[in-house]
Amino acid sequence: MAARPRLKDVAEYAGVSPKTVSNVINDFEHVSEQTRTAVREAIDALGYRVNIAGRQLRQGRTGMITLAVPELDVAYFSELAKHVMTEADRRGRTVLLHQTGAVRERELAALRGFDTQFSDGLILSPLALLPHDLATRDRRLPVVLLGERSAEGSTDHVGIDNTRAARDATEHLLARGRRRIAVIGGAVRGRQGTDRLRTDGYREALGAAGLPFDADLVVPVEAYHWQDGARAAAALMERAAPPDALLCLNDHMALGALRALHEWGRSVPGDLDVVGFDDIEATRFSVPSLTTVAPDKQEIARAAVSLLLERIDDPDGSPVRDHVAGHQVIVRESSGG
User: Fold this and answer.
1) How many CB atoms lie within 10 A of CB 149?
2) Cβ–Cβ < 8 Å for 326, 160
3) Angle, helix 7-14 to helix 33-46, in steps of 10 degrees
4) Is the previous residue joined to 288 through a cis bond, with omega within 30 degrees of 0?
5) What is d(CA 306, CA 299) in angstroms, rounded to the nearest whole number?
6) pLDDT (tens digit, 9 = 90+) per residue, 221-264?
7) In what order do the strands lie in the sheet with 327-330?
8) Fewest CB atoms within 10 A around its CB: which of 77, 138, 197, 286?
């Protein structure tokens, strides 16, 4: 039986150093595309496989990382989890999935590594943590935050520019001639959470168009679920001067709003335009199909896993990183697409 190829064999075949091969396997930056291609071709040619168990034993690691999200029945988080698991698997890691329910105690437990040693690091999407929680956390557990940064400058972070994204969506509605645009799930006051940042983007777009901001058109909700969007849309339809467009701060609320508008006999996009956020799969199949802001979930997952593995390998080796992933407004039938 032929000997199993070693990392050193890959290096000799590709004409590079063993360290370079390791950098390519771990997807580190600062490796040229030409070198990366040569190493991958050598890996394929030799049939090299990473000895994950041996590497973990030598490094004192489990090979597992934790992903903690608020709610798996909110499609954005389940779709994001799929991308994280795919990327982690590509990098030879296993993902432990934890649902926090947006409860601070559960988010704190995840941040503490559940007081055990079963995970090498944490990717966390927090909703309930306070800035103090992150600023004073135990640094022995590598952490990457998703969503909005709660402790500026203290923890690696991956997200989109929520203010710019909401401004882009509002500008799309304004270009369609809409002038009374309501924000379902918005917030005028409070700390810089997603709702506040997206409302700020909406206000920026109105200001740039020379339109006044009307706080009565910003409708807070209890949660970002189907029924919250439906209730908010129905309440807006009861007003003497209802809006002519809805900017819903996630797709679940937007789809709930579409149902409520149908029950009220309102046509979309005739009487109103509706725009959501997150580009979940269901938005392609609703009637009408939903215009939505699409964050690059694959990029978010790739950046989060990469930043976490780099931090696991070298906890103090680099300053705190803040990766801004891309987004785009995908125009569908609910706003004339």
Assistant:
1) 20
2) yes
3) 120
4) yes
5) 10
6) 999 999 999 999 999 999 999 999 999 999 999 999 999 999 99
7) 218-219, 181-184, 245-248, 273-277, 291-295, 327-330
8) 138
In 3-state terms, what secondary structure has residue 212?
A: coil
pLDDT value of position 134: 83
Give the length of the chain.
337
Residue by residue, DSSP assigns 170-185 as HHHHHHTT---EEEET
Mean pLDDT of 291-306: 97
Count of beta carbons in the 10 Å neighbourhood of residue 224: 26
Please give the biggest Cα pair distance in the chain. Answer: 82
Is there a contact between 279 and 296 (Cβ–Cβ < 8 Å)?
A: no
- The pTM of this model reads 0.81
Average model confidence (pLDDT) across the chain: 90
Pick from 236, 237, 186: which is nearest to 213 by CA? 186
The C-alpha atoms of residue 15 and residue 248 are separated, in whole angstroms, by 54
d(CA 74, CA 79): 9
